[in-house]
Amino acid sequence: MPSASEPREIVVIGGGIIGCTTAYFLTRHPSYDPSKHKITLLEASKIAGGASGKAGGLLALWAYPSNIVPLSYKLHAELAKEHGGAEKWGYRRIHCGQLTAKGRPLGSSNGNQMKKEENGESLSLKKRTKEAIGTLRAAGIPKDLDWFSADSVKDYSEMGDPDTTAQVHPYHFTTSMAKLAEASGAKIILGQVTNIDKSDNTVKSVTYKDKETSETKTVPATDVIISAGPWTREVYPPAPISAMRAHSVTIRPSRPVSAYALFTEISLPPDFGRTGEKVKSKSSRSKQVTPEIYARPNNEVYACGEGDTLVPLPKLSDDVVTDDARCQDIIDYISSISDEMRDGEVTVRQACYLPNVEAASSGPLIGETGVKGLLLAAGHTCWGIQNGPGTGKLISEFVFDGKAKSAKIASLDPRNVL
């Protein structure tokens, strides 16, 4: 490995949360010298174009893997304090819990319209009677978690509090990290990587197709970090990284809601219908669904459903296809237990792919690959946003110090599975 004082050509592949935090922490490492060290971040489509711009943004000390979670959670707080994260990317401490509920029939009304009684009173306001509040309290529901139907909620159990749980807006956080890295000397190029020259088992250069000009270009490299999320295998075929599609929506609720992230378990009634224009096939059997619901600042709620592998990973994040029916399912499920969601405005329907490690260890994979100068940082599953800062800092240590210093991550060594 070249010494920290020698000239370095560092190439980061992937402009998601892992690549952007890696670029950021490379520019913050004590050994970084912009006159000697060139950092290039290559992104095929756009910064935060994949899951890093469409995830939930939950941060938790109880996440996994436990060997990097505390480091990354702490770094999130430090980054927010240093750079105004509360304002720039919605960093805040929150409550998190498991909510068990029974869904209500929806009929065929449009979930984007405010449903009102004949006297003009919003149904969501009508539900917040003293009787309804008493029912919620009896079920153990926190006093400020009042944006669910009292007839629906059956149980609530706390998973995390503001000491152990927080959140960010993934797109704003990722793009902010990219901008901060760029301001400190990193160069961002939009181009799809086509080859990594690893002759003599040592990285020499990276070749890419420029997005704007379609020209093929090559940049020299002493260090290459592959952080391409679900596209990692496209760049480095030996990496055991697979992709799972996930759909999500954002809703502007009919009134401001409290700061909670919720893992739900909803029992849908038989013949559960659709709120939108289309009506799905009805079943005479009840169904259990488990959408996640995250309240965000600025009167926004994010919700996601279960993943699938029905559609293969496309070549670029720009080409990801959203299944509107799956998004509508998420809207219907959460509308069945919350008037505030049902009467709110759906603002985004989207899909992305999450990177999973196909190995006995659940990942992620962080560290050396066995090829001199080639590092891997991928396979973060649903905890990429949470573990992005920790991963970025550790990779910066591999580059400049030759080893991870801030956490013990032998179990995450890519060489264990390559």
Report on this structure.
- This protein is of the alpha+beta class.
- It contains eleven helices and 19 strands.
- It is elongated and about 70 Å long.
Topology:
Layout: E1 8-13, H1 17-28, E2 37-43, H2 51-54, E3 58-60, H3 69-83, H4 85-89, E4 92-93, E5 95-102, H5 123-126, H6 130-138, E6 153-160, E7 165-167, H7 170-183, E8 187-197, E9 205-210, E10 216-220, E11 223-226, H8 232-235, E12 241-252, E13 260-268, E14 287-289, E15 292-296, E16 300-304, H9 324-335, H10 339-342, E17 345-357, E18 365-368, E19 374-378, H11 384-401
Parallel strand pairs: 1-2, 1-11, 2-8, 5-13, 11-19
Antiparallel strand pairs: 3-7, 4-7, 5-6, 8-9, 9-10, 12-16, 12-17, 13-14, 13-15, 15-16, 18-19
Helix pairs in contact: 1-7, 1-11, 3-11
**Order of strands across the main sheet:** 10-9-8-2-1-11-19-18
Give the SSE order as H and E letters: EHEHEHHEEHHEEHEEEEHEEEEEHHEEEH
Strand content: 25-35%
Tell me roughly what share of residues is in helical segments.
10-25%
Compute the CA-based radius of gyration. Answer: 23 Å
The DSSP helix count reads 11
Ends apart, CA distance between termini: 21 Å
Low-confidence stretches: 108-128
Number of strands: 19
Helix-strand category:
alpha+beta
Mean pLDDT: 90
Rough shape?
elongated
The biggest sheet amounts to: 8 strands, mixed
